Amino acid sequence: MTDDKPMNSPYLLQMKEIYKSFGPVTVSAGVTLEVKPGEIHALLGENGAGKSVLMSILCGILKPDSGSIHYKGAPLNIGSPREAIRHGIGMVHQHFMLVPNLTVAENYVLGQGTPLRLINDMKAVHQRITALSDRYGLDVRPDAVIEDLSVGEQQRVEILKVLFHGTDLLILDEPTAVLTPQETDRLLDLMRDLVADGKTVIFISHKLDEVMRVSDQISVMRDFKVVHTTAVTDTNPRELARLMVGRDVLMELPRGSANPGQVVLSVDGLSCRNDLGLPALKGVSFSVKAGEIVGIAGVSGNGQTELSLAISGLLPIDAGKVSLEGKDITGLSPAEINQLSFAHVPEDRHKMGVLLPFTLAENAILHRYNQSPFAKKGLLQRGVTASFARDLIKRFRVKTPDEEEFLANLSGGNQQKLVVARELARDPNFILVSQLTRGIDIGAIEFILQEMLKQRDAGRAILLISTELEELFTVCDRILVMFHGEILGEVPADRSRLEEVGLMMAGQRSAPAAAMEPALT
């Protein structure tokens, strides 16, 4: 770090010429970022552009190779996240940093060097959490166990945790990636409340509509540098997308009409329970035909996860039937379903889609590591595997040094592209996709959604489960809406029906669906 003289500046934060490399790999190539006090400053860029690395340097998780940081007019040299918190800088990471089997209050005092007197007086901790929760309308219970909370509740716990430690500069890394539309609206309102309360927010996001709604200033990163900074009033989503990707991005994907064929997947009266033993699906019935994309919309937690798991054999079915190409697959194990013409892009790629400590080549054959041509007489054919992985990397534009790179070193978007590439390489007749574009950038979203349309036009049957209505309206041919484990109605993918979909997501059954119910006498 250089330049230790105090400085008079209108900026709360100045990061100048920040360089960082891991061996031959550059992850920050002279970044300069300036943030004014009391503003929401959005940081945009494709996956792997260097956004999270830059913020990790600011928070003391990583140390820069060179460059300078000034904060509140003075030089800043942070050696650890604890030091960053002492300076009033806190970060809410995309993947939560909470211990699942501890309470909210226990997580707040864990690892922060909190005085023993405070740990011994947990009543004071509870009172402070409650006061902050009430002040910002976060509805966080200090005695709640983390693993019992929904994703949205855990997000609020993470934000309040940072505020609990006295943060002035709050960094939110993809905070809406796992939230429902309602939770997202609530979070954006909270960000404005924080600024009104004297805080400053750096908002890392891929979602241009949210950035335009809530930000004051926007900086765009590409190729590990900030390439443009502008006031939100002086730009638009199309320009931001072009700056992020380096080319014009299709904001609306062209697609022809579907030509549905025979029924490929049939779900009839499906009922099952969640991991708490409570009813999650209640007599769900629908079908997906060859050559169409059927969307499942709904607020997270209304049975979509259980539907995906039940269809793929990962959750026991209490009643009902699932058929694939006329064959009853109800009760088959995941391994047995894996032998069928069935591909699955799971909701949580880290838990169910990949092995992060493995290489890209190894992840590319996870389902087929013991099958020809990847195995011969019980031995892996590494040359064949490497060639197969290189082909997937090239076809799906996965940014990586080579196929032997560990998957953990790739951005979330590139990890997702590999999962999609692997599943489509199986040449399936049916594709089950959950939260396809969660946490990935606009360039990757455009590419992956175009690939889904290509698969539809090639005659594949696709079931797309998503909390992102824009995603569903962009590629689906018809949309089913789930509420409390039931299908409340079906609408064509016509944006003029958006209000109707929203009402069904809130529990109001559509008129056609209601008319199908038996009349009461």
From TrEMBL:
Presence of keyword Signal: no
SUPFAM superfamilies linked to this entry: P-loop containing nucleoside triphosphate hydrolases
Domain ABC transporter: 13-248, 265-509
Gene3D superfamilies: P-loop containing nucleotide triphosphate hydrolases
Keywords: ATP-binding, Nucleotide-binding
Source superkingdom: Bacteria
Nucleotide-binding is among the record's keywords: yes
Segments traversing the membrane: none
Matches recorded under PROSITE patterns: ABC_TRANSPORTER_1, ABC_TRANSPORTER_2
A molecular function GO annotation: ATP binding
UniProt xrefs under InterPro entries: AAA+_ATPase, ABC_carbohydrate_import_ATPase, ABC_transporter-like_ATP-bd, ABC_transporter-like_CS, P-loop_NTPase
Name of the protein in question: ABC transporter ATP-binding protein
Species of the source: Pseudogemmobacter lacusdianii
